[in-house]
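Provenance

Sequences were taken from public entries as deposited. Structures were produced by running a predictor on each sequence independently, with no templates supplied. The record for Large ribosomal subunit protein uL23 from Methanoculleus bourgensis is shown for reference.
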Amino acid sequence: MILKYPFVTEKATMMLEGENKLQFIVQRDATKQDIRRELESVFEQEVSEVRTMMTMKGEKKAIVRFADEKAAEEILSRLGIM
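Predicted structure for Large ribosomal subunit protein uL23:
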């Protein structure tokens, strides 16, 4: 499993509401294509953009934008976060 867990902070919530983006902590060796494939297969939503970065704790964080404007909220509600 490439996705470890969703990264939910106040800033991440603002990105969800304003830009339709979610943040996930992923495996360090995961590529953007790996992340895109896994998200599309697990959540059955089209991913339009994947950006990655390393956190100060040494974890890899993916910022994902979905094609459907309500997809991010739907995914968080499915996960039981919102």
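The mean pLDDT is 92.
The CA atoms of residues 17 and 42 lie 22 Å apart.
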